[in-house]
Design a protein that fits this description.
By secondary structure, the chain is α/β, with parallel strands linked by helices. The protein is built from eleven helices and eight strands. Helix 5 packs across helix 6.
Amino acid sequence: MDQQGNTVSTKVTRITTRTIQEMKDAGERIACLTAYDFLVARMLDDAGIDIILVGDSLSNVFQGNATTLPVTLDEMIYHTKIVSNVTRRAMVVTDLPFMSYQVTVEEAFRNAGRIMKETNALGVKVEGGRRVAKVVEKVSGEGIPIIGHIGLMPQSILKYGGYRPRGTSEQEAAELIDDAIALEEAGAFAVVIEKIPATLAKRITDLLHIPTIGIGAGAHCSGQILVTHDMLGLFEDFRPRFVRRYAALTEEMERAFRAYISDVKSGTFPNDSESY
């Protein structure tokens, strides 16, 4: 009931591809973060995040691998199921991991279908532009929402030989523009743009009708995404300049762990009020 005695609906409206496009058209920025577990997913959803990406970055920040390449489709499904089960508002999208969509279009569609059937996710994401256009066309054509990803692509990091920005030359910039257009024409509902010059990201954003989601691509994209462990200061092995740290949880957690160890060693934990 509100103050006038009227019944107020508590129904939560789920974010969908339509919502995301309406946000782009209205000039409302789209906020995205990653999650791989129940607690973080629930907190992000309660906080009002628009898109939760179950990213293959879990290979780095959850499994401790040097790259995103080792994570498997089954592992992505496992984590996505956990995240999807707790979210009520946010749109949950999951990465198709390395080698789950590169072999054939049919295999890509089958794997995307597994994710949708087994996890209740609302979409998938693939890395690549023109080279994955047929995959995007098939997957989206069969009714599965799909996001593209261009610029720096972590699944291709061994090819690049490092994490330098992409699109810094005229030729590479032109290729990225063509990639973005190809993804839109193939049916992607959004495009992640990673680690490219802000001016180029603006050009792409202005050219596309669908939203762009930036990560290290400046302020002109339709929305932004970061790895949650990075913005919370939980993952310190890799500290790119585009990550704004909103907390320093590593230091706080280490302080708490040391305090607990000290209390156990000294016999001050548990005390009488903490005992039965």
